Amino acid sequence: MNDDLSWMLDSALEIPGALHAVLISADGLLMARTKDFDKDNADRVAAAMSGVQSLSRSLGFFCDNPEQRWQQTLVEFDGGWVFLISAGEGAYLGVSASPDIDMQDITFRMQQLVGQLGKVLAAPPRENLGALR
């Protein structure tokens, strides 16, 4: 985990109702988390969100164009929301929130974060893992 990015993720929690934020790689590795979110749960969220973004990206054809790029996924629960957005090449930003969050505010803040983090968020996929064995 890159601790240097955690303080930036904490800024997402300035939006009333925002609970936690994680930054993950496309292959499900945790890159950063908000300070109040423990690592074990953040790792679980990173693995799950990797699957969510992969499934979401496969649904472009449902919008009549399979070539469209996935931008975001929103999951609603009885007691809250999970927002997942693309955060550069191979990186994703996820935020959980209470049901009363202002959705426009949190999605705008997430986009600001992605812009602020810029190239730091670009996480190339792991390569040549078999060569290390």
What can you see in these coordinates?
This protein has helices at 3-10, 39-57, 103-117, and strands spanning 18-25, 30-33, 72-77, 80-86, 91-97. The relative contact order is 0.20. By secondary structure, the protein is of the alpha+beta class. The protein has a 5-stranded antiparallel β-sheet with strand order 2-1-5-4-3, with helices on both faces. The chain starts with a helix and ends in a 16-residue tail after the last helix. β3 and β4 (80-86) form a beta hairpin. It contains 3 helices and 5 strands, in the order αββαβββα. The radius of gyration is 15 Å and the shape is globular.
Q: Which helices and strands occur, and which strands form pairs?
A:
Elements: H1 3-10, E1 18-25, E2 30-33, H2 39-57, E3 72-77, E4 80-86, E5 91-97, H3 103-117
Antiparallel strand pairs: 1-2, 1-5, 3-4, 4-5
